[in-house]
Structures are given as C-alpha cells and as structure tokens.
Amino acid sequence: MEIRKLTDEISVSPQIRLEDTNELARLGFKSIISDRPDKEENDQPDADAVCIAAEGSGLEFRHIPVVASDIGERDIALFAEAMKDLPKPVLAFCRSGTRAAMLWALSQAATEGSDTVLAATKSAGYDLEQIRPRLKPQVALPDQKISSACDVLVVGAGAAGIATAASLLKRRKCLSIILVDPSDRHTYQPGWTMVGGGIFKPEDTVRAMADLIPQGVKWEKSAVAEFDPEHDNIILADGRRINYRMLVAAPGIKLNWSAIEGLEETLGRNGVTSNYRFDTAPYTWSLVQNLKGGKALFTQPPMPIKCAGAPQKAMYLSGDHWFRKGRINDISIEFHNAGPVLFGVNEYVPALMEYVRKYRVDLNFGSKLVSVDGSQKEARFTRTEADGTVVEETRGFDMIHVCPPQIAPDFVRSSPLANQAGWIEVDETSLQHKRYANVFSLGDAAGTSNAKTAAAARKQAPVVAENVLAVLDGRALPAVYDGYGSCPLTVERGKIVLAEFGYGGKLMPTFPTWVIDGTKPSSLAWYLKSEALPPIYWHGMLKGREWLVSPDLKENAA
To answer: Is residue 384 predicted with pLDDT exceeding 90?
Structure first.
C-alpha cells in the first residue's frame, strides 16, 4: 500500500485490497473512507465488501462516492461529517488518492486555512493548487448553512422511522444515517387500547428513545421545521440544515384535538377520555370500572386515522367489562362514526355485528363529533342528511371516549413534498416520492390508501430499505408494497377478530384459516396481540428483524 500522511488524523492512498484491512489495523488506523463509486473499474472491490473486511479487522468504514470533476457541496459536507464522527486516525482512499486528498482539503479549509491544507496535500505528493478558489470561505446566509450531511436522512423516530433505519443497516452497515426526532421517549401505541381495557400497564408501552436508536445511526434530537427537497436539505427548528443523499420521511400523524371545540379543556376529566393519548388511556379504564349505569359514547372522526379499528376496540372492551359485571342493561352505549359503515372491509363486519348486538350498541353512522362540554356532560354532533341538510344533535353522557380527527404534521402539509390533501405524495407500491426520486415516505404521513397501522409500517420498512439502496446504486426499484395492514379488533377480553388486508380491501391473512380465521373471534389471535406482538415490536421490528415481512424482490431489478 502507498500510504501518504496528510496530518496525524488522516492519511490517503490509492485503492486498497480487501486483505489490506488487517495491515491497516496493525498500523494503528481506526477508520477507512472510500471515495470511489462502485464499478469504477472492473477489478475494484465494491463498498459493501470493503465494509465487511474493515469491520472484520475492527475498523469503522464510510463510503462517500465521488467523481473528481463533480465534487459537490454535499460530498464535502459528508466528508466533514465523517472526519468529525469517525475514530482517528483515518485512511481515505480512491483510485489514486487525489480525490480523497481533495475532499479532505475542501472540507477542512474553513477551519485550517487554505495555505495549511494545500501545503499538507503538496507535501504528500498531491499538488491541488487548482482548487484554491474553492477553498475560500463562502459567505452563506445563516438559514442556508449546512451543519451536517449523511447518506440517508430519516425524519421521525416512530415505528416506521426506526424500523427503516434498522433495515437499512441490516443490508448495508457502511451507510451514514442521521435520524431526526425531538422526543425523549418512544411509545408502543398499539398497546394503549389494552391500557384502556385494563390489560396492559401504561409503563409497559414506553421506553427511552436513546435505548432504541439503532447502533450506527446518529440521532439528531431536534424538530424539523421545513423540507427543502430542491436542495436535498431539511431545516431544523433552530435554523440548521442537514443535507442528504436520500430522504426517508416518516414523521407520523398529527392528532388534531383542537378540531373538536372544548375537547382539549376537558380531556382527562369530567368523564372525557381517549386511548389515543398515553396519559389518558388509564383514565379510560378508570371510567369503565366505575361506571355503574348511564350513557357511554364512543366516537370516530372522518378517515384517515391511525388504526381505524381503535375507536370501536375501546367500545368492545368496555362493553365486555360491563357485560361480565352484569351492568350491560344499565348502560346505554352509542357509537358515533362519521363514516358510513362499521368497518371498511365487509368480510369482518358479521363478526363485529354479533358483538354490537351483545353489548346493545346503538350505531350512529354519518355522525361527527364537533364539540364537547365536559362540565355539562354534553357532546354535540352533526349529521348530513341525504338532501345535504346538516342536522345538529346534542347527546348527554356519563362517559365519552373520543378519537380525535387526524391530519399530516404542519411542516409536512406546507412542504413541497405534500399532495393536495397534505400527505406526502408517494407511489403506493414503491413508496418513492412522485416528484423527487431520492425521497421515500412510509408510515402514517405517507399519502397511501392503506390502513395506517404499525403492522403496515412493519411491512413498509424493508420495502423502503431495499428501494433506497437501489436508488443509491442506480438500479431499478426491486421491492413492492402491497398495502398490507392489520387491525386486531379486541371484541372481548380473550378474543380478537384479526383483520388483515391490503389495497382494495383484499384479505391478506398471515396464517391459514385452520390456525386463525381472521373473520371470526379467536383466542389465539388474542394471544398474538397480548403476548407475542409487543416483543416482536421491541425486539424484532425495531431491530431490523423482518419476520414474515421480508419483501419479494423483482428478479429484473438487479
């Protein structure tokens, strides 16, 4: 190997061989940066192979592929980020070492000075005087300054974001990934229905975010203010920008509590509750236990919402408790659904209707909650008649469970990524943005017609991971998302109607009907929900383990 030292922190060299990594470790190097695009020459080992060899020798690795004549500001920012993050000393290589030396000089000139970096490269045998004009500090407006850069930027550390980051690293460990999310904690939201039914404890559904960020992913604990896809940037709330080669947008959904007049002021007291919030789900169970008689209202807003079955899950578990306690005849249950049907996939409705009858539920379709007065224990609904007339109705209650209207986050709706409805505009099968090829989206904020569930995100994450890598490699997109989503409808304690379906309402059962018939109540499905799914979520999905969801890849995409 022809190693040329620039500083105590970095040396450069021409192309290395896979077997050179052990020698580099023996010489004291801690990290390797490859600045060569794959397939630049036929006999060149690709970056994945170098990454594996480096890891085997105890070295960290970063791939920043550039062409010498086309080194851009993002490439410089990526190199600067690598020099900031990687353990030193670093060996950077390309075909001859020149590109590596150029990237170092361009990334360090602002702090070290033009004369210093050019003297260092010249003493190593690389005369880079021709790039001196680029070494002069550029005067940038404060809101245009790039603070960091990465191969893949993931916005949102919910189920979809963390799962995608983990799936990406499972396939390619050398990726530079930044995950942006301001939250200290991560919540298992599918468990909140069970909290509201007295089955799970609230603390079982939350963990520290720092414990869940995949190893090798850099966590930027900040909020996103704006997407700037024209410049491959996002802008953080404090004005800093992060540049990316690929963007994965998984910012989740906004629970629009303020859309219902009076709700925020009374939520969590006066008999007003919701399983859609960590702090109020326990209140649901308290109300259910203490209600001896009277009227209980359950509401569902217009679609789309996350987990469309959750509003009626709360109703069924409550009804089951009152049935078991012999109170069902003393409690009047009403379900007010702004939509026209009980459930959007007809095959599951007969089983659900059996429980509607069992719990004596009064179904009110087309009934939209518009205001709540907790002190007066009154809720106001609107209903549109066939002739277009809007009728207002007021209902008294002793308990009301509210599912809030839901919209895309504000910074999504106002961004160039959004469609007319405010969701991120992606192709439904590839999950690639329709106008920005290096942008993908999944989870609740994606503009797809599937059910917005954690099960959908679990199926989407490996699809996005495969397709992101394909774009980075210049390949055709190999993976397809079929719209799969799952809604375990908890119809009573100990039994679940396991609704699994894809685009167009197509039934997509995971198990054969002799194991679990999803159209009928099942105790095995209850076991799956209560015992199996939480550890699958924490130890499988969020760790990049794609049990039963590995995507089928197109043969011609290689």
So the answer is: no
| pLDDT value of position 557 | 55
Cβ count near 339 (within 10 Å)? 17
Q: Which of 139, 168, 201 is the last residue of a domain?
A: 139
- Active-site residues, by number, are 307, 487
Q: How far apart are CA 24 and CA 44, in angstroms?
A: 18
Segment holding 155, helix H or strand E: strand 146-155
The count of domains in the chain is 3
Question: How far is residue 291's CA from residue 296's CA, in Å, rounded to a whole number?
Answer: 9
CA distance 333 to 26: 73
Burial tier of 80 (Cβ tally within 10 Å: 0-12, 13-18, 19+):
buried
Judge if 237 and 287 occupy the same domain: no
Confirm if 409 and 251 have CB atoms less than 8 A apart.
yes
Strand partners, 188: none
418 and 315 housed in the same domain:
no
The confidence score (pLDDT) of residue 388 equals 79
Q: How do beta strands 217-220 and 224-228 pair?
A: unpaired
Last residue of a domain, one of 403, 429, 464: 403
Per-residue pLDDT tens for 122-148? 999 999 999 999 887 654 444 456 678
pLDDT digits 0-9 by tens, 234-257: 999 999 999 999 999 999 999 999
Other Cβ atoms closer than 10 A to 38: 17
Helices within 243-294 (DSSP H only):
263-266, 281-290
The closest alpha carbon to 12, from 83, 97, 104, belongs to 97
Helix (H) or strand (E) holding 466: helix 454-473
